[in-house]
Amino acid sequence: MAQQTKAAYYTEFGGIDKLQVGPLDLPELGAADVQVLVQAAGINPVDAIVREGKFAPVVPSAFPTVPGWDVCGIVEKCGPEATRLPVGTEVYGYVRQPVAQHGTFAERIVVPEQYLTKSPEKLSWVEAGGLPLVGLTAYQSVIKAGQLKAGETVLILGASGGVGSAAIQLAKDAGARVLAVASAENADYMTKLGADETIDYKAGPVADTVKKLAPEGVDLLFDAISGDTLAQSLATLKPNGRLISVLNDGKSLSLPASVRFQHVMAQPSVADLDHLRELADAGKLTVPIAATFALDDVKKAFEQIESHHTTGKVVIVPQRPEKK
Ligand SMILES: NC(=O)c1ccc[n+]([C@@H]2O[C@H](COP(=O)([O-])OP(=O)(O)OC[C@H]3O[C@@H](n4cnc5c(N)ncnc54)[C@H](OP(=O)(O)O)[C@@H]3O)[C@@H](O)[C@H]2O)c1
């Protein structure tokens, strides 16, 4: 008989009411798989989009679906070809598989080893479980696609959320001047993470404030919010600036031809996770935690992330008590 695990799951697309918590069969351990005792699993806005069925054109789902792509935990079993991360290794990863079915909001998961790597030693399990998707998104956007360099100025929209919090720190580490946009309530929070200037998007057009802070314009605009805030901010770009968005495909933006635009969708990458671990272990990358929730409270975790006003990360903690 298949081993079972306690998991959050849903059997059809829909709202938060579709979520259930109970025992489910674990997938059989394949040759290249590992079984992980989950210590922490970050929740992201995309988990709600997948649950609603709106992400199906990009990543199809199979039911019952266990949501969640972020994980930190301990390897319990290894398939014969999974030799990189032996039993007992503390691992973390962004487990976005080709089909959304065997997610991370569970006490145990069986996943291909290829999505995982050693977790940062300096981070708690909760912090490490909240890092993969937001860390990869910020790194692949600001540093890899955005090519942010020392001495440049970056404007970050949505800077107090999971992605933005990582983006501020990576931009500071790159030696850039950071202008961070969120509500005034989060100004101190963003300053503590390294923002040189904070801008309240509720206080008037963002471009008006940026014009005073950086009259020559910004080199890189990193958009993690889109909508009106992005529309208002386009005028802040230098003529040959770069715009990286994790939400907007650029079609409706009518950008000058000289602006380099790229839409980024975060990709699983062990090499990039290794880089993020090095930054975290060097004290250059922290993961501020907004709230943790037990598996039984998974609906509350979704309610918080679906508010779109989370400061830092929301993380599901299936094992109690937390040991690290
Ligand atoms: N393409 C990809 O691969 C990818 C990857 C990760 C995330 N995303 C997307 O990126 C977005 C951000 O993700 P996240 O995890 O950082 O979300 P999050 O943790 O929910 O953070 C959202 C943040 O945006 C701020 N905010 C809300 N309205 C704003 C506005 N009009 N202007 C500026 N800031 C505003 C909020 O701050 P206040 O509370 O102060 O308003 C909040 O801190 C989501 O839509 C997500 O789906 C895409």
UniProtKB/TrEMBL annotation:
Q: Where is the Enoyl reductase (ER) domain?
A: 14-316
Instruction: Identify the keywords attached in UniProt to this record, alphabetized.
Output: Oxidoreductase
| The keyword Metal-binding is annotated on this UniProt entry | no
Q: Which InterPro entries match?
A: ADH-like_N, ER, GroES-like_sf, NAD(P)-bd_dom_sf, Quin_OxRdtase/zeta-crystal_CS, YIM1/Zinc_Alcohol_DH_Fams
| CDD domains in UniProt | MDR_like_2 (cd05289)
Does Membrane count among this protein's keywords?
Answer: no
Protein species of origin: Hymenobacter ginsengisoli
Superkingdom in the source lineage: Bacteria
Question: What protein name applies here?
Answer: NADP-dependent oxidoreductase
